Amino acid sequence: MNLKHICYGCFQEKPDEASVCPRCGFCAEEEKPFLALPMGTLLNGRYMTGKVLGVGGFGITYLCYDLTLEIKVAIKEYMPSSLATRHSDKYSVALTGRGQEEYRNGMERFLDEARILAKLQNTPNIVSVQNYFKENNTAYFVMEYIEGMSLKAYIASQGGKIPYDQALTILMPVMQALTQVHALNLTHRDISPDNIFITAGGESKLLDFGAARSSTVEEKSLSIILKHGYAPEEQYYSKGNQGPWTDVYAMGATLYRCVTGELPPDSIMRVHNDTLKRPSELGISLPAYVEQSILRALAVNAKDRFPSMEDFLEGFTGKNQADFCSTTALALGHIVGGSGGMPGLWTGLRRRSVGLRLAILVLCIAAVGLGVWRTTSGIRTLTSVRTESSSDKSGLALQEPDGAGNVLSLQEYTQGYLNITMGIPEGYTETESGSGAFMSADGASTLQVGFYDKSAGFPVYTLSDVEKNAEKYVRYYIGLLESTDITEQKITGRGYRKIGTLNAYLIQFAATEGNGSTMEFLTAFIECQNEFGCYNLIGSYRQGDEEAEAEIFAAMDSFRSSGPAGTIYRRFYDERLPFQFIYWEDEGEVKFNPINENRLAISNSNISMEIHCQPLNEIQDKEAWLNAVKEEMEGVSGFELRTGRWQSESGGIDWTIDGYTITEDGQTVYVDAYAGASDGFVFLILVAAEKENNLFDGLLLDVTSTICPVK
């Protein structure tokens, strides 16, 4: 690596004359935060500092490069801005007053964070610390660098709130990690969506233990460190009784923010006038037991809260059950018309950790790629926008730019995993090797290459699915870009065309910011050989840049496919059944058993499911089908209605859900029944698990978000 030409935003080499990195869009000439170390500073003889990742009142976090291990890391520097400043040598820290003792004590507390993280080195879902040291009259510690997005950013990308089951999937692993933190008599004291990170691999990670303190300290007052809306009332007092219940409140507030889109009122204001609204009062549909658990976690008085994170978890998962007997079988054939004697839903259940991370993973990967465009344009999350009608009959025909056929300066790009080749405009470089995201030399235009199956909330089996959901895709794509300043977005052209020998559906759209600047986009969905999904190319350029528009159109027109695209998903289709869906196949884990012409049994090591499908003209409606199932279930020994009926939207289908438990011989099975209608058919999906949290399995998410009739 040539360190003279290094980009401090991604630690890749860049052309020496380029002010903007063609890989990540970082511009080193932009003003760096006040008090930050110069980029390229060498720390501890091995760590090179890069861009600033975050600044707080007590420290600065940098992206750094470990020259020994040749990996990116994050380094946090102790820099209390109220006590110290940067020395004139630009590196060492100098005190601004007489607070020598306060500064030293603060440094020890700072290093306490590193020591805490060192104790939690092998705890899943907590960021790991690799090293800590003193230098420049201050202290540093080295952490793993995590690529992805914060929960706060993820919520914003989803329109300000997310479904409760998705929120639980993100937060439950962190809650479980906190049980281990509390076992060490530590309290985090700063839990919020800012400090929970979703990695590009779909994992949840808890960050920032700078406020963490021992729960057993009695002789000293705890420092007042809090985040309004997330901190319980005891955190507003230096001698407040803090412990695991303090983190329970903050986690409850985080979950409340996820599902409602609103921040709870400050706890200190709720002491005398509690204005907290139940999620159901805000129009949020979720099971009663989930709402009750959130509200109990948010109790103002600590004695009314869950006393521990384990108890909070049990509010969602139920008490630990005895091992489930794999030979138990309660046939549902008489309820839904199945074959007599066939094994029911409750056979062969085995434990496996919750796997509902696929949608988040897809979004994180997309957001990382889209960050290239975000850096140069400033247009981000869609807030208040206007979308014009985009029917093909409305006159919004594709507008092929002049000169697209004359673009010759394309460099060949081959992607073996996707089995594709195409031309990339001259001067565009890949932002990161293997990413499929390219940027022009001036950073004003981008081109991204990928595969689409269902990440924008609708599945694709044919290009007609894209045509039907064009507006939804545009809203989703613009929404990923995380701005609060878009005043208008609209589709300007759309339609079918041939790209080589392949059929394609193209959408042209534009987004305008409050300052009047407009970016234009061209996206192409191209058929493939996978039986589902399609290739997805998307380019962006400044409005009026005819040369960039012609280059991107020509690049897309040069696209060629030599075989099926690589993907982690598979399509389920059986000619005996009238429906299909897309699922993530872990080799050997998913089993399918068609029972008759409208019924399928599925199982993995976590859940069992049955899918039933009937034409709408043979079923009164989905609610009537659910009511019939409930009526029959009420006759089963040990049956209880676990939750009230609730609603959820997934894959373009509005699902209505009932929750039950069935207890037999002291063993409990949790059951959810989903009913939804699509294209003239009604689906009934029954899912069963031995533990309640296992109901939120990735296989169920795949089915509910992609199932549709075979046309």
Automatic annotation (TrEMBL):
SUPFAM superfamilies: Protein kinase-like (PK-like). GO terms for cellular component: cytoplasm. It comes from the Bacteria. InterPro entries: Kinase-like_dom_sf (IPR011009), Prot_kinase_dom (IPR000719), Protein_kinase_ATP_BS (IPR017441), Ser_Thr_kinase (IPR053235), Tyr_kinase_AS (IPR008266). The chain crosses the membrane at residues 354-373. One of its GO terms (molecular function) is protein serine/threonine kinase activity. The keyword Kinase applies. It holds the Pfam family Pkinase. Residues 47-317 form the Protein kinase domain. ATP binds at residue 76. The keyword Flavoprotein does not apply. Keywords: ATP-binding, Kinase, Membrane, Nucleotide-binding, Serine/threonine-protein kinase, Transferase, Transmembrane, Transmembrane helix. Gene3D superfamilies: Transferase(Phosphotransferase) domain 1. PANTHER family: MITOGEN-ACTIVATED KINASE KINASE KINASE (PTHR24361). This is Serine/threonine protein kinase. It comes from Hominifimenecus microfluidus. The lineage of its organism: Bacteria, Bacillati, Bacillota, Clostridia, Lachnospirales.
